What does this fold into?
Amino acid sequence: MNYIIGADEWRKVYASGSNHKTVWIVIEMSDGNTIYLDSYNKWLTLKTYCQDKKVKINSIGLQYKTNLIKTDTSDKDGVYLIRSVKGQMGGTSRDCFTIGVVNGTKVSKTMWLTPELVEDSSYEDDLDNCFIEAIIFNDAR
It folds into this structure.
């Protein structure tokens, strides 16, 4: 999978103008690299990248245009990211990303409405209630 590594490379891609409406997933790795993902499917392959490079995730964030939200994960057991749709009866459906940090058997989650990256809700969940494929552990698991 091709990842965009480094802010300079991301700026080149962003300046091309074809993805100005993209919500980017921004990951700072323990080796000092910052990885930019333009699709959630790339997140699902990042676990292999982390294992192969022997790196962990120091922070994860979302960026839309100049708006960047970031969560420190450097001292956490793992990172959780899922995309979803939030709907309401008779209302408009909203695309969302949920970022979680794993601490033991608990995951502290924050749901962000996209594209504007407004916090919708925060809550704690059991690790057993999470999609395991959406978790990247910061150890050898």
User: Anything to note?
Assistant: The chain has two helices and ten strands. Residues 89 and 95 are 15 Å apart (CA to CA).
